[in-house]
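Help!! Second protein's tokens look totally different from the first
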Amino acid sequence: MRGVRNVLLASGTLSPIQAFTFNMGLNFGAILENEHALKQVPVLTSIVTRGKHGGLVGSFQNRKNIEYVSDVGESLIRVMETTPQGVLVFFSSYSQMDELVEVWKKTKRGASDSSETFWEKMEKTKKIAVEPRAKEQLAAIRLRYTQGVSEPHGAALLAVCRGKVSEGIDFCDAESRAVIIVGIPYPPIHDERVVLKKMYLDDLMGRNDLTNERQSSRDWYQMEAFRAVNQAIGRVLRHKNDFGTVVLIDTRYASAKPEMFPKWLRNTISRCDSNNCALKTARFFKERGHLIENSKSEYIKKQAKTCKSFRQVKSQSASNPKDDITDITLEDMFSPANMIIEKKEKIEPRPIKYESSSSSVFSLPTNEDELKVKKWEQENDSQTNVSSSSDLNKRKYKAETPGHSSGQHEVSGSEPPKKKKMVLLTRETLPEKYQNALNIPTSELTKGMSLDNQKQFVATLKGYKATTMEWQEVFQRLHQIFIPDRPDLFISCSNILRSEDKMKYIRKSLGMKINY
């Protein structure tokens, strides 16, 4: 395409294309509207113009006419009876859908009192699901619908044009064998935005400006309605092997210009009454009986595969995100995003894999700095002036104050790393095994720990960090985890506590004579 710098590809459901180009406000040099990729589109489109009692005009004034409501209900039942698997039914608005459903639940199909209502007959024909107004309930409704599609009689989903179902959700194969649209979904005529838009277009039409393309408010209003119709129609054909029927229940569709519909659909449209529509629909699906049978088995396999995948994902993921400790370190445990904790937790077994993390969201009070100090002292032992081993012990374990100067390093050269001060409220020195335990890096605490203990360990540290748990409770919980198997790690856990609680933790350990 020589000389072409920009090409805009648009969906066929954006018809009518004239309204689209006008609203874009751009001067397109050329517009190409193609046929469907398939030579023969496997779609049957029926405009139902009449019911048992007369013409089907779904205007606002006729919406509560009992004959119109009965004819629409009967037309739906006839199509549902002849359509296998899933049926999507779209209404102009939630109010229209609610009003019709309410009347169908009360109105008998026949003259006798013993006959069933329209709604009861629909529920016998298909498993009915209704699109909710609240988006939080949509997942449950769709699940009900997809489960019903796999049942022998299939299912029907009642929804609204411009709603959550008509645009953006993919209904493939068995889930959309028929798309039925009741009425024409014109925008609310008294809506403020609609009123202003029509006023704006009327003002443009009244000007004597022949240089720019103009659009009447009436044309815009009609095109907006058909754009919503075409979006809903697009649910019926999702790939080259898909097939289905489109049923437009309103006489006014018969007088619409062909340009209002997508180009690929125009050659499939025919006009008929409700009886002929049911006969044509039955014939259409009878000719594709073998495809439907294959589709049923494939759909059941697809559902089973989806359920299996869901169960696998669910079993691999923790029931509560706060319980997920895969690839977690002590610093990650204390991340501000993981502060809330439930003390009683249901633990699901799962494989745990630990890797080192470079996270530095929160700096734990560990013994890593003390180990660096000790390593520095060993490397600079010849330069360190220490009067006696007693003074060394005092420097390590004696209570220090800012003005205390005994045991200070007399060092030439580099300064030692800043020490992590450890305050014990006693002059006694710790046993050698305790000191060895305190030298264990905190990164070693969870190595070799069972899954249940890992969960309990994480929960304990989170509770302590969130200040919902005192050190005494931490002591009891960690005691159950490490004693009697690993008392050295139990002592080392004091390094992750705040300094004032660390001293109390070690003193209590000494009092309980925890030895190993």
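Here's the second one for comparison:
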Amino acid sequence: MESDTATEVADQSARTFSQVVFIDIPQSYPPSTHVTCSYTLTAAFQPNPRDWVGIFKVGWTTTKDYHTFVWVEPCLDVVGEQTVTRQAFFKDYYLPKDEIEFYQFCYVDSTGQVRGASTPFCFRSPVEQSLESNPDDDLLVITTQDQVEQSLREKAEMQKELDQIRAENETLKSALLREQQQAVSLKGQNEQKEKEKAKLATELDQTKQQIEILRSSWQQQLKENDHLKEEMVIQMTKQMEIQQGGITERRERSSSRTSEEKYDRAVQKINQLKDEREKLKEAIEAQSEEISKLNAKVREGERELFKAKDGIQLIEVDLQSSRKEKERLAAELQRLQSLTYNVDKMQRENQDLQRRLSVQETQQSPSDDLKFQCQTLTRQLQETQDKLAAEKEETKITKRRNEYLQAEMQQIRDQLENVCKALDVEKRKSSKFELQIHEVNEVLADKNITIEERESTINQKDNQITLLTQEKEELARENQTLKENIQDLRRLYTEPPTTPAEPLYVPPDDNAPPASTHVYETIGPEDEESLVCRHCRESFPGITQDELDQHEQCHRVCPFCTMLCDDMDQATFEDHVYSH
């Protein structure tokens, strides 16, 4: 994957760097002189007055690493799509003074993108350039054995340092691999927690819907209870009218039959309400079990969060150790840079020796072995420089990887914080649902109490109806007995005597009333039946049963306690009836 990324970056750099081509760039420029570079703008590139040409040290990473720069000349004579050649002029005062490092020209557009780069060059005198132009020519190098041994020792030390740096790089690579694996595992855990959170949200929505269904059924039960209450009030009112009216026995039987039917319907309704109450209790118990399961899942999610936090703390510790390793590597790089400076110094000394040898070439005969050793040392120093550059580049790549991992860890930490917040919200929702279920339970308890009270009221009413029915039956029996007695008396007075006796002579009395010619006239007033009101207990002789019923209907009597309430108004009378 890293090689593919490097290839893509190289392809992109090649496409952008080929839009401006620098031409006639020598290998070196004389120091302390003005420098002029020529470049060609391709037809596919459109210049801008804010473009600039800068001098960069070889190995630069961003466009801010320039040493100096100049603005480009505006292209006013460009017509259509054609290549244009321009020049950039640099004053000697702003040029680099270092004769060891290599530099290159870079064309940067107004957006900060590099559109072209030149070949590397350096700032050296013509003599140095001529001496270094042909490194493979036969040169006479004079050096001492001590210098050779010191170079070998420095080479061995640098080789050891390179081995150590390679080992440290391997360690860092393995640490980065472990951190990447941990990041992948954390991502998997985060995705699993997201799935669990979505599942919990779905279950909570289902619980909410079930609670809404229970609430609607509860409201329907309340409406049915109100309707039942209205029916009971109507039934009580009718019963009161029946008791106050004193209607005939046939109507009483029909009304008692109707009352029994209504009572049976009320009992059936109460049984139905009991069944629905049991169903509601079962549904609430099921909801409570689901809520307990949700709470268990929430607690499991909390434990997973704690584990993830512990893992994050371990990764932070690893990152801190990686930072310490990075600092140590930076110190090693500084030390290597100082060693590189010493190597460069030795190169300059070798160059001085080469110049001296070129002057004294005709005077002395060099040793072939020393010449071979010097050339070998030069090649080894060059190889060491290449290795140091490669190690620097690898260290930079490691640094960039560490920064990427740190950003990824921060993103994972933010995601975990979001999951914690979502879990807190779900906890609050669950506690809210528990409160709602508790309220529903309280309402159901109140409803149960109301149903029990109504059952007791119906039972009392049933007892009162039974008592009234018994009382009516007793009154009917008494009435029938009285009727039979009256018939017996009438039959007794209408029968003639079997052995009539001789009438006694009674002297007439002028003041006495005339004798009655009919036998009933002597006992008529004494044989008249007097009816008694069963409410006020007042007797009414000489009235019919219909007149007595009209009189009893005028009374206002409680259907439960049979209390006479003629002196109460309608509202007080209703309150008295509802109090039972």
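Reply: Different proteins will give different token patterns, so don't panic. Helices lie at 2-17, 126-133, 145-245, 249-359, 368-494, 524-527, 545-553, 570-578.
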